[in-house]
Design goal:
mainly alpha, 4 helices, Transposase, Arc Repressor Mutant, subunit A
């Protein structure tokens, strides 16, 4: 397998600058939901699956985007029953 010169140069420069080639932390804001909040939101949705996302967001004091992101991430686990 052959690598391009620019790939090797970037890796070499990264090693010279940081002393390793692992991924450096990305910029941007961290996600705000912790595991407990996620569970509370999912339980709320399980209790009333027809509740609007805006209402779920307001009830849990998070943004609608956070709710949608959580639902998208957990869409394959919708069949799980919480006891």
């Amino acid at each position: 397998m052959e690598r391009g010169c620019s790939t090797v140069s970037r890796i070499e420069n990264k090693f010279r600058e940081f002393g390793n080639v692992t991924d450096i932390p990305k910029s941007g804001r961290n996600r705000i939901l912790d595991d407990e909040q996620k569970l509370d939101i999912l339980l709320d949705i399980q209790d009333n699956p027809h509740k609007p996302t805006r209402q779920v967001a307001a009830d849990n004091d998070v943004s609608k985007t956070s709710i949608l992101r959580l639902l998208k991430k957990t869409k394959n686990t919708a069949h799980i029953k919480f006891i």
